[in-house]
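User: Please predict the structure of the protein below. I'd like the answer in structure-token form so I can feed it into my own downstream comparison script.

Assistant: Understood. Taking the following sequence of 188 residues as input:
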Amino acid sequence: MSGAAPLRLEVVVGSVRAGRFAPTVADWFMRAVAAHPDFAAGTIDLATTPLPLDLAENDAVRAFRDRLAAADAFVFVTSEYNHGYPAALKTAIDSAKHEWRGKPVGFVSYGGVSGGLRAVEQLRQVVAEVHMVSVRESVSFHRVKRQFDAAGETADGAAIDGAARMLRQLSWWGRALRAARAAEPYPG
């Protein structure tokens, strides 16, 4: 990244279900991010981020928006439920507006046989509507519980490679869009 400040990456964990597998997937991904010097990363776990379903304004929503505003890039960690993404993730997207705009987003999905890919394809449409740039590369875990060992590690070569490629794309887009936003406010 040649001396520039690291990009602020927020990893948004979308599942809030009891017994969810999301923490295992998110923790693995955060270890991959930690090895990438272009990013300073944090996690926003929607299970512990109290966003109101009616999209009302409150202190938690304002704190959430402040965190989004400070970010340069995002990754959504999403499960797939009934061919779609979790409702908590839609609430999170809808709880902000300008804070998402002109910023890149990547996806780490998991599920059964589809690996969450149907959820990601739906999310690509939603993030375009809020003026985000979705990167092409993504990470997908098919039959997710079979992909991780007891220590939360995976030997899934496609996922490991996909994470590295996605992070390179997020770095490129993140730097380009950060410079563009600094030069001129996003016209949305």
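That's the full token string. Residues 7 and 175 are 7 Å apart (CA to CA).
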